[in-house]
Amino acid sequence: MSKLYNVAVVGATGLVGQEFLKIVVQRQLPIKGLRLMASPRSAGRRLLVGEWELEVEETTANSFHGVDIAFFSATSEVSRELVPSAAKAGALVIDDSKAWRLEPEVPLVIPEVNAEDLQGHKGITAIPNCEVTPLVLALWPLHRVTPVRRIIVDTYQSVSGTGALAMQELTEQARAVLDGHRATSHIYPHQIAFNVLPHVEPFLGSGYTREEMSVVNETKKIMHEPDLAISATCVRVPVFVGHSLSVHVEFVRPLSVEEAQAILREAPGVSVQDEPSVNLYPQPWTAAGKDEVFVGRVRQDVSHPAGLALWITSDNLRKGAALNAIQIAEELIARNLV
Amino acid sequence: MSKLYNVAVVGATGLVGQEFLKIVVQRQLPIKGLRLMASPRSAGRRLLVGEWELEVEETTANSFHGVDIAFFSATSEVSRELVPSAAKAGALVIDDSKAWRLEPEVPLVIPEVNAEDLQGHKGITAIPNCEVTPLVLALWPLHRVTPVRRIIVDTYQSVSGTGALAMQELTEQARAVLDGHRATSHIYPHQIAFNVLPHVEPFLGSGYTREEMSVVNETKKIMHEPDLAISATCVRVPVFVGHSLSVHVEFVRPLSVEEAQAILREAPGVSVQDEPSVNLYPQPWTAAGKDEVFVGRVRQDVSHPAGLALWITSDNLRKGAALNAIQIAEELIARNLV
Questions:
Q1: Closest to B309 (Cβ–Cβ): which among A175, A233, A237?
Q2: CA distance A104 to chain B (A)
Q3: What is the pLDDT of residue B1?
Q4: What ipTM did this prediction achieve?
Q5: Model pLDDT for residues B286-311, shown as the tens digit of each residue
Q6: What is the spatial distance between Cα B25 and Cα B17, in angstroms, rounded to a whole number?
Q7: A160 in reach of chain B (CB within 8 A)
Q8: Which of A33, A59, A300, B166 has the CA that lies 20 to 30 A from B224?
Q9: Alpha helix (H) ranges present in chain B?
Q10: Which residues 121-150 in chain A show a CB within 8 A of chain B?
Q11: What's phi and psi for B15, nearest 5 deg?
Q12: d(CA B212, CA B157)
């Protein structure tokens, strides 16, 4: 009989936590016990997970006794504070915050790309930012054939990346605008309904945002390419679920569109949607709720002899977060690393 | 006394035509007579322009007798058919369609950039695509100081670029989605509400769209740089008015952020909105209804030693279309070219 695990989900009531619980059931992770944890505000709530009805507990430093795998989807502050306690108690942590991703001893993993980085883990692993995972998942198979030299990416990120309150804000603002009223903003600094904001996460001194530098630094780390040239502009758009990326890649040698499409068609986790003649290309509305990273609009970049342009969309709550975390757990189990 | 002109507006009932009529009054173009023209469907409608109430006439090949300046904001098909008749009748045409822009003998003009190209006109002039004008207006003053070598631009284009019916479609779809109903699409191939579509204008064999190649070819023509490297991905977003552009520029030599901002602050038609510390950056919601092209998020591109990244937003109906056309008329008048 194969081993069963005690799993804790920190942030169980959040959007990513909820998605995690759905996928855990779908994929039949070998679970012995499941504990749902959240902030004191949510403690006591009862959630249905598959056939189990479970009560949400408050997360504290002492919560992790007996836990084998702890999935954290909380703020960076919570992760920074509680992840070490969980690891010390013997849980293997899979963290979804920015807190640990760039720590050298923390594997930052997309299983289809760098599962072997899990090998040396010290009790804490991390999943990449929700737009980094689709970017690297799509570029990695191309990079293995013809190395990538430079990446320019502009994002179209949905409000679910911010959380449930942002989805509510978009709903309320959209209704207000349609009814001819003024929209009020609480979560974002400006109206997001029928608007776009070139502002995801706080600004840094360089003029980049923390989100944009996540794209830069996490991509380099996952690809083991510290000298890769990469730049990003991260933009919030009035979409509920699904992040899209417009990507311009330079390779060391030209890669034809047909070759790139053929490689992507074989790539695990990737689905090519690229039939302009029938208006088939990735869209957030159709990617939401799906596991795959959708790639389309692959074309020779007219501004560079060895460049390709492409368009990527994926569900930021699934492959961008919860699904990737569960795949890491599956990989850790398969490798006897937990 | 200065000369007065007979002006015709073809497409007077469209979104750009309406904006044109507002701006004509605001800027007091020296008009003797104003004739409103449109398709047979709109003929007979009466419109208020300043203090005049005018009846819309059907546009035909014989409509242009006595017209000095004819502004066309119609489909490419209509422009291709009727612009020659207008020019033959002696009207100076300012055309807003894609039909004539790349014709070698047709000046394609942003007055702040290449007004002198009007000099040799043969009766037909054209205004650039609504996202090309802000792009070139912002890059031109930088290019004059330090030549631009390559441009990568990804757009966030509003539905008013398609027209009034697209604005109605966004409104109706947004209501449907908020009410939990299915959205139906007539104007766009897929839902635009709470979605983004990497699809503006038809696809070409190369995988680029006609809109994307407009960005490429019109930019080269206006800047008189046929060998400029430039690539674009054009994306429709659920915004009513205001096109935004995420731009990554490579120069022949490094240009500092401070220098670029200083140049842009002096540039005609440009307004710098670049104070990340107080969340000040261009947004379509705030740019709509304004004349300026707003530029912000100027920063050293971390992926290129002589690169800058920036973010541009402008009202696609005003500087992107009607205002630029009126400025061309003013320039033609000032130069005694009409």
A1: A233
A2: 22
A3: 56
A4: 0.96
A5: 999 999 999 999 999 999 999 999 99
A6: 13
A7: no
A8: A300
A9: 15-27, 76-88, 111-114, 132-145, 164-178, 210-223, 257-266, 284-287, 323-334
A10: 150
A11: -60, -45
A12: 12
Question: Are residues A199 and B279, on separate chains, in Cβ contact within 8 Å?
Answer: yes
- Report the C-alpha gap between A45 and B85 in whole angstroms: 74
H or E stretch including B302?
none
Give residues 230 to 289 of A whose Cβ lies within 8 Å of B.
230-231, 233, 235, 237-240, 244, 246, 248, 257, 276-277, 279, 281-286
- Closest CA in chain B for residue A242: B195
Whether domain B132-316 has CATH 3.20.20.450: the reply is no
Q: Six-digit token pair at A164?
A: 């449930």
Q: Which residue of A has its CA nearest to B278?
A: A189
What CA–CA distance (Å, rounded) separates B219 from B333?
Answer: 25
How far, in Å, CA of B271 to CA of B265, rounded? 6
Q: Which residues of B are catalytic?
A: 130, 243
Minimal Cα distance from B149: which residue of A? A303
CATH superfamily of A5-128+321-334: NAD(P)-binding Rossmann-like Domain (3.40.50.720)
Q: Do B206 and A299 touch (CB under 8 A)?
A: yes
Question: pLDDT digit string (tens) for A113-126?
Answer: 999 999 989 999 99
Query: What confidence score (pLDDT) does residue A1 get?
Result: 56
- Residue A2, pLDDT score: 81
Q: What residues contact B327, with CB distance under 8 A and at least 6 apart?
A: B111, B112
Residue ranges, comma separated, of all CATH 3.30.360.10 domains in chain B are 132-316
Helix (H, G, I), strand (E, B) or coil at B47: strand
Is residue B67 a contact partner of residue B73, using CB atoms and an 8 Å limit?
Answer: no
Interchain pair B248, A299: CB under 8 A: no
In chain A, which residues fall in CATH 3.40.50.720?
Answer: 5-128+321-334
